[in-house]
Amino acid sequence: MMLEDTRPALRIAHDAAAPAERWGALRASEADWQAFRAMCEALRGTYFGFPVQRWLAWGLYHTVYRKVGSFLADSDFLADEVGVMSRAEMAIMQRQYTFAHLASNFVKPGCSSTCVRTAEGWRLMRSLDWGNLNVMAPAVRAYEYVNTAGRVTHTAGVQGMVGVLTFCRKGLAGSINFAPNPKSLKPIGRGIDPLFLLRLLVEDPSIDTLEAAVELITRTKLSAPVFITLCSDKSDAAAVIEIARDGRYNVRLAKDGLLVQTNHFDPNGPFGEQNPTRVMQDGSPWEWYYSDLLENSQRRSADLEQRLRHMVGAPATDVEIACREAYSVPPTWNHESIYWTFAAPGKGSMKLWVRDCAGDYPHAI
Known about the structure:
With 365 residues, the protein is an alpha+beta fold. The protein has helices at 19-22, 24-28, 30-47, 51-68, 72-82, 87-93, 96-100, 133-136, 194-203, 210-218, 285-289, 297-308, 316-326; strands spanning 2-4, 10-13, 112-118, 121-129, 140-146, 152-158, 166-169, 172-178, 226-231, 238-243, 249-253, 258-261, 337-344, 349-355.
């Protein structure tokens, strides 16, 4: 099930000069630091257990990341401090989104994001669905990115994550969803990882509207296809930016106050042919719960549309309850659901619920 995380968020002073200052709150918290260390130990055994994996990481680090890598000072600092992964291995793990496309036959991450226009403005509900549930969920944490002017942006992710998956600040909220990749000899490129793009957006004080965020996203070269969902209290619309492998993009707007994005391109849009050809049509709750997240993506989207359409214009508290109920039904609730967030850009606030990994559950609440 999902449990609300009421711990005070850790603060990242993102415009501090040195990585030690930026990550000081994480390093100073013994419980959080040990959670980060335990996650690093588990992930290193999973992804770097063989010499060839470590050699490949070393090669990429020295030939690519040291020359053009984003946020490498933060990544290097965390590697040096935790003493579990090498700098090269830490750099690879910070780019899990990109490298998941290289292992698309084995790694099937998901995510479900929904924007609903309530009586008090837009709200964004998201579920992060990723592999390594028992390793990742205990390391989930709420962070606050704060600059010297005191501007706060709320985020949620795992300990030591240099990039950003989910954010909310006054005026704007957003989330990243995994996008499928067509079969290709070159499934990833040399652009910036999408999680680093979201961090750039979070750290830019001039971006506080949906339109400004869309402009930044669509002019940035990315390393892999992605969906980015945005809503703003300063805009009548919410939007998903669909970005294909070749850098082309499509902006899809909310219809009548509701926008749902899971893990497939708009079938009627310019990239519909890049969706998986196998689509799961039916199954029992347990079959849906354990099903492939790319194959059940269209079912998740249809379910959320059907369950939340009538909530458009309702009080925000009622919408939050309805979202949690809708996200508790398989396949939106599934064997890889790690956390939920509920963001209110008008208030600049965000709630976080984290998966209790005591066992498998057919329900979340």
